[in-house]
TrEMBL record:
This is DUF4230 domain-containing protein. InterPro entries: DUF4230. It comes from Dyadobacter frigoris. Pfam families: DUF4230.
Length: 223
């Protein structure tokens, strides 16, 4: 009888331990499935530079970029991939005064500008979204493809920004600021620029004529 009781006790302990271990692994497994992914980021400051850049104009752009790549395998299989990218960008245009060249004539309180830089895109804050992504069995998107698409879309946005009115607005704004600031201190600014540099700045400073005039509108109305 005592032997049966001892055997029953040992069996109960063994089953209880097995049940407890099983319950532990079950709940720990569920906990691992529900756990949040671990994230770790390392930020390294490479260098600090002193700059004198002034933003003079701000523009908002939306670009619809269609990408398609057709690939021919051994002249037997044609496979293509394509994607639609909608890009939004906030573009800041201004001047890098580190490129400005001038000298000061203190006796006459005059600042002589020897070279005036062109307006440039100082910053571009972009947001991209991919739509209608299609890819074949063999011709599939790789990580390099997405990087290339984003670089091309950003380059196109940069070109469109420089072709817009932002450089003209920035040029007029910076000249107004410089002349007003000099006037408040009883100084004068003399733009003695090389001919090529002068022509470029004048091109940016001048307002573009509107193509649609009143006469043309009246002529279209009569027709």
């Amino acid at each position: 009888m005592e032997m049966s009781t001892l055997l029953f006790f040992i069996l109960s302990v063994f089953l209880g331990g097995a049940f407890g271990a099983g319950a532990y692994y079950f709940w720990s497994g569920r906990h691992k499935l529900k756990s949040e992914p671990q994230r770790e980021a390392t930020v390294l400051l490479e260098r600090i530079e002193k700059v004198f850049k002034v933003v003079m104009a701000e523009g908002y752009f939306t670009e619809i970029y269609n990408y398609q790549h057709d690939k021919n395998f051994w002249n037997l299989i044609k496979d293509k991939k394509k994607a639609l990218v909608i890009a939004k960008a906030k573009v800041l245009v201004g001047y890098d005064f580190g490129k400005l060249r001038f000298h000061v004539e203190g006796n006459s309180k005059k600042i002589v500008i020897d070279y005036f830089p062109e307006p440039e895109v100082l910053s571009m804050d972009t947001d991209y979204k991919f739509y209608d992504i299609e890819q074949g069995w063999l011709n599939r998107f790789q990580s390099d493809d997405y990087t290339s698409i984003l670089n091309e879309a950003k380059q196109t946005m940069n070109e469109k920004a420089l072709q817009s009115d932002l450089p003209r607005i920035a040029t007029n704004q910076v000249q107004l600021m410089m002349f007003q600031l000099a006037a408040t201190m009883n100084w004068k600014i003399d733009m003695q620029l090389p001919e090529t540099n002068k022509n470029v700045i004048e091109e940016y400073s001048s307002y573009k004529p509107v193509e649609a005039g009143i006469e043309s509108l009246n002529r279209k109305t009569e027709e």
